[in-house]
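Sequence in, structure out. Go.
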Amino acid sequence: PVQGPLPSGLTINSATGTISSNGSVPAGTYTIVVKAADAVASATSTLTLVVNSAPTEGAGALPNATATYGSSFSYTIPGNAFNDDQGLTLSASGLPAGLSLSGNVISGTPTVIGGSFPVVITATDPYGLSKTRSFTIQVNSAPVYLTGSVANQSAKTAHSFSYTVPANAFTDANNDTLTYTAFWVQEVTSGSGSESGGTTTPQFNPLPSWLSFNAATRTFSGTPPAANTYTIELRATDPSGARASTQFLLNVGAQAVPVRGTLLSNGVFTYGTAASYTLPAGAFTDADGDALTYSATWEQTVYQGTNSEGVPIYAPVQGPLPSGLTINSATGTISSNGSVPAGTYT
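Output:
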C-alpha cells in the first residue's frame, strides 16, 4: 500500500479530525488513514469512505400499459431502466388494486373496474439515494354478455329473415364503443385413430353467403335457399381488444308445400253465356302463408294404340285449357267467354 494526499475535494480539520467533502469527490471507495500526533508521539487509524452517487435514468423504456379488469396482468421493468454501480431496490406507488411489484415484475389481477393509474417506480441504492420514473397503467373493463339476451332463431327456406340483437346484449363498464362481428361456427374433424374418428375443433368462418350482418345496427338478414341449422357466434370487442361473445342457433326449416284442402265440386257452364267458377275457401292451403299462383290444364283420355293382344290402350293427357276457358293465376277463378263447345271437361 502507498499512502498519499487525500483525494481532491476531501479535507481534514487538523484540530478536530473532521473529514469534509466539497461534493466533487468522484464516486468510489476510499481507504483513509487518520493520524493523530502530539508533541512526543503519534497514532493512526484506518477507515473506509464510500463516495456514493444517486441512480440515474437508464436507456430501458417504461411504456404505458393496458390491463383488463378480472384478467391476469404482467409487466416487466427492464434491467437497464436505471443506472447505478450499487445494487438497486425497486418500489412502486400508484398501482391499481390487485397489482403488486415483486423484484422487477408488476403482476396480478386488477380488481378495480377501470381507470387510468399513474405509476411511480423508485430505484433506491444501499445508501438511500434514489431515482424515480413513471408510466401509466390503463385498466380496462372487458365487455360482458348478458346471459339469455340472444335467443335461438328460426327461419324458413325462401323466406326473408331478419333478427336484430338487443342493444343491451353486451355491456361495458368503461362505456367503450363496442364493435360487433359475427361468424359461422363449423365443426371440423382432423386426425384419426380414436373411437370418435379424430379430433373435432370449431372453425370460425364467414357467414353463409345468403346471410349478412350489419354491425352498426346489430342486424342479421337474408333469404335462406335451403333448410339447414347454423351455429352463429357474435362477438363484441372494445377498443383495447377485450371482447365477449355468445353463440346461438339459426334453424332454417324447409318451405311448406301447398296442400289440397276442400274438394272441388263440379261446375256447369252454358254455351253462349259468359260464366265463372270460383274456388271454394280452403281449396288449397300453405302453412307458410305464401301467396299461391294458380294454373289449370285440360285432361283428355287419348288413344295410345293397342297392346300385343290387340286391345286398345287409352291414357290421360294434359294440355292447355279448351279455347274460351281461362284461369286467373292470382285467385284460381276459371272463366268462360261463352264460346266453349258443349261437353264435359276434366
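Check: The mean pLDDT is 90. The chain is about 0% helix and 45% strand.
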